[in-house]
């Protein structure tokens, strides 16, 4: 039976409120990104791990010296946990770089909210299309799977050729894999009871319809694996963070670790991105985890987060401005996800008041202290701790990850190694809003055919994914992903 603690009541109230997410990505390249604009975005009150670019906020940040980060150094501290009484930090784990000439194994990982498919499936289509495009530039010995965590292996994903199987060896062609994952918000007592006994009943019934072996079905969480499942934390996430849309995109990287631990590198990404060709040949160097850039770091926030990290007994290494896209080893991703969950739970419980959590303040406090970017704050604490305790190496890839999907200059794509393009909340082409409203058509597809800019790449990938059938896209991957040789 359902328990009604005060917290669950509050969370239930919060469920009905719109959560504005205001993540924006640093953009240093293109002056036209800084023009003041923006209607209120009409995006649904949902899980969009997206990058809402509030251009007016960017402008303000750039002209105001108050928000300039460099003015005051943030104090850094050593971890102060009771357990770390001896203050010696172990050295960084030895770096054994992956040889680019070897058969590099990679995964592009997303969480897809199946219950909001109408909004998100178009994004899956264009991401899938760009993954297929990227596979054309990939060395023949490399493999890059498209890994999707979601709660229903629905017909669309079967048409896309996705399989519910973990990678068995390095020769299997690049393929789309779908793993069944129970989103936090659905972890009601009736689903979690008796070790999630009934959580996959619907999926099993569906598998029978498709004549698939129910025994081999890959489901998450794995309740008897203490490395990837903590029943108390799962419960706490449900109680505290089930209305926070982005929680599953992090929790899957923790609870789903065993499904992707065999890859050399994983890209954790939002859905509203385009994999760019350069990704085909690029892997992080020197055992680093690359992140995109994230614009949440005012001086106020840096100080506050440094103070909070002391309260938590976390190390703080002075890094700031990390975005939510990660590209690095599977294990680094797992470590960051684990500590990010811990950080988010801490912040939600002890550093945000109820009206803030319920979005009653809207964006009033942004960019100083805003619940909508809890994920970035939690990740800030996590990465600083892991870097400060020598567990991982992190580099912010300002010119690598989360690049512009609106830039129309040749120079932009010719300079640098842009690995993925991320949609911003804008009406400039490529705009995901305009696209979803049907404002682009075949005429545009023709117009951009010979154009090699980032803008044209995004327009083409999105429009092609719209006009191709799912089977045609699956075929594109089948014929273009390297097959086992010899
Ligand atoms: C962007 O920020 C400005 C002021 O900071 C605010 O007036 C506007 O509503 C914000 N836009 C969105 C889309 O949140
Ligand atoms: C910000 O500071 C710089 C140097 O400290 C100064 O040149 C500039 O005029 C200041 N800008 C504003 C908007 O105050
Ligand atoms: C990788 O292969 C290329 C071409 O075969 C060769 O020139 C290069 O030295 C190799 N690199 C390593 C690290 O083996
Ligand atoms: C799951 O997918 C099946 C097959 O496409 C579909 O019939 C069913 O409605 C889906 N269930 C939910 C809850 O989305
Ligand atoms: C579990 O309980 C919730 C309400 O507590 C209900 O909405 C949901 O349908 C139930 N699920 C199943 C599988 O019985
Ligand atoms: C499953 O098997 C049955 C009996 O062999 C067959 O009639 C049915 O078409 C199969 N379903 C699918 C989706 O292949
Ligand atoms: C969990 O249980 C399954 C079957 O019940 C078993 O095959 C598996 O090895 C167990 N995993 C762990 C980590 O204990
Ligand atoms: C990797 O490390 C080497 C040696 O420290 C350095 O020369 C090189 O620039 C680094 N590469 C990157 C991409 O950071
Ligand atoms: C996960 O995070 C918790 C909380 O910080 C920590 O105690 C635990 O050791 C972490 N697990 C791993 C595998 O790093
Ligand atoms: C495409 O859209 C433009 C304007 O949005 C319109 O003029 C044109 O007729 C459309 N073309 C097709 C093929 O639908
Ligand atoms: C694209 O290039 C092809 C071959 O060079 C040419 O036939 C076609 O007219 C060009 N299309 C556009 C829209 O410029
Ligand atoms: C990629 O797939 C398409 C469609 O199946 C095919 O026409 C094309 O030749 C393939 N390209 C390569 C490089 O395999």
Q: Would you tell me the overall average pLDDT? A: 85
**Which hetero compounds are present in the coordinates?**
2-acetamido-2-deoxy-beta-D-glucopyranose
Number of helices: 18
Query: Structural class of the secondary elements?
Result: alpha/beta
Helix residue percentage: 25-40%
Q: Care to describe what's here?
A:
- The protein is an alpha/beta fold and 486 residues long.
- The chain has helices spanning 6-15, 55-63, 117-135, 155-159, 189-196, 201-209, 231-241, 247-255, 257-260, 299-312, 330-350, 354-357, 374-388, 410-414, 432-436, 442-447, 454-467, 470-480, and strands at 105-111, 143-150, 176-181, 219-220, 265-268, 273-275, 288-293, 322-328, 393-396, 403-404, 420-422.
- An eight-stranded mixed sheet has the order 4-3-2-1-5-8-7-9, with helices on both faces. Strands 6-11-10 form a three-stranded mixed sheet.
- The longest helix has 21 residues, at 330-350.
- The protein starts with 5 loop residues before the first helix and ends in a 6-residue tail after the last helix.
- Mean pLDDT is 85; it is low at 1-6 and 8-86.
- The structure holds 2-acetamido-2-deoxy-beta-D-glucopyranose (12 copies).
Present the secondary structure layout:
Layout lengths: L5 H10 L39 H9 L41 E7 L5 H19 L7 E8 L4 H5 L16 E6 L7 H8 L4 H9 L9 E2 L10 H11 L5 H9 L1 H4 L4 E4 L4 E3 L12 E6 L5 H14 L9 E7 L1 H21 L3 H4 L16 H15 L4 E4 L6 E2 L5 H5 L5 E3 L9 H5 L5 H6 L6 H14 L2 H11 L6
Parallel strand pairs: 1-2, 1-5, 2-3, 3-4, 7-9, 10-11
Antiparallel strand pairs: 5-8, 6-11, 7-8
Bound molecules: 2-acetamido-2-deoxy-beta-D-glucopyranose (12 copies).
The site of one 2-acetamido-2-deoxy-beta-D-glucopyranose has 2 residues, from loops.
